[in-house]
Write a structure and sequence with these properties.
mainly alpha; Ribonucleotide Reductase, subunit A; 9 helices; 74% helix
Length: 245
C-alpha cells in the first residue's frame, strides 16, 4: 500500500472562480489509453467487478435533488454563478460514470441499474436543504479519494489507472468546491453552531466508512488497504477540510 496523496492546484474562492474552473477543466482532461492491449486477469476482475459496478452506479446520478436545493439557495442569494458551477460539477461526476462504464464494457463487466447503497445515499439527499446535501456529498467525496486510489492500485490495467488518475484529480477540487460553499453557508451562524455541524458531519463520515468497507472490502484488501487505513485517511482529510481539532 502506498500513501494517499492528492495534487495541490490553486483553489478557486468565489462562485465565479469555480464556474471558470469547471469550464476550463473540460479541456484539461487526461487521455485514457482506450486501445490498450491489456485486459484484466481473472484475479483482478474478481477483486474489482462487484465494487466498480456499485461505484459507477453512484457516479451517474443526475443530481436532481442537489440542483433543487441549489435553486432554492440561488433564489434567495442571487448567486447564479454557483448554480452554473453546480451543473458543471454534476457533469464531471457523470463523466466519471461514463468513463468507468466504458471501461467495464471493454472488460465485459455488466453495468448495474440499482443497489441498496446508492438508494441509501439518494434518500439522504432527498428533500434536504443545500447545506445538508453538500455535507452528504462531501462524505462520499472524502471516501472516494481513497477508494479510487485503491482501485488504481488494484490492477495493472493502464486504462483503469489513467481513469482513476483523472477522477482523483477532479475529486480533489470537488472537495474544496463543497467545503468552500459550506463555509459561506455557515457565515451567519454562531461558532458553536458551526462546530456542532462539522462534528455531526464527521460522525456521519465515520459511520459511512463502515458501510463502504462492507461493500468494497475486496478492492481495498487487494490493494493492501485495511479498514484502519481508510479511517486514518478520512479522519485526517476531513479534519483538515472541516477544521476539526
Amino acid at each position: 500500500m502506498t500513501s494517499v496523496t492528492l495534487p495541490s492546484p490553486k483553489i478557486p474562492q468565489t462562485s465565479a472562480d469555480w464556474l471558470a474552473y469547471f469550464e476550463q477543466n473540460r479541456y484539461d482532461l487526461l487521455t485514457p489509453p482506450w486501445n490498450t492491449p491489456y485486459f484484466l486477469t481473472s484475479e483482478e476482475k474478481t477483486a474489482i467487478a462487484h465494487s466498480i459496478q456499485n461505484f459507477q452506479l453512484g457516479e451517474q446520478s443526475e443530481g436532481t435533488n442537489l440542483m433543487k436545493a441549489a435553486r432554492v439557495y440561488v433564489e434567495r442569494s442571487g448567486d447564479t454563478a454557483f448554480l452554473q458551477a453546480m451543473k458543471l460539477f454534476i457533469g464531471e461526476e457523470q463523466r466519471h460514470a461514463r468513463d468507468l462504464g466504458n471501461f467495464m464494457q471493454c472488460e465485459g463487466i455488466p453495468l448495474r441499474e440499482k443497489h441498496w447503497s446508492d438508494r441509501l445515499f439518494r434518500r439522504f439527499r432527498r428533500g434536504v436543504n443545500l447545506e445538508v446535501a453538500l455535507r452528504v456529498l462531501l462524505t462520499a467525496e472524502i471516501i472516494a479519494t481513497i477508494y479510487y486510489k485503491a482501485l488504481q492500485e488494484a490492477t495493472h490495467s493502464p486504462l483503469l489507472q489513467k481513469i482513476c488518475e483523472q477522477i482523483l484529480k477532479d475529486e480533489h477540487q470537488h472537495l474544496h468546491f463543497q467545503v468552500n460553499h459550506l463555509r459561506r453557508l455557515q457565515e451567519q451562524r454562531k461558532p458553536w453552531q458551526q462546530k456542532a455541524s462539522n462534528y455531526l458531519n464527521y460522525l456521519f463520515l465515520m459511520l459511512t466508512i463502515l458501510v463502504v468497507w462492507i461493500d468494497h472490502y475486496r478492492v481495498f484488501l487487494h490493494s493492501g488497504y485495511r479498514l484502519r487505513d481508510i479511517y486514518q485517511h478520512c479522519d485526517r482529510l476531513s479534519k483538515n477540510l472541516l477544521k476539526i481539532t
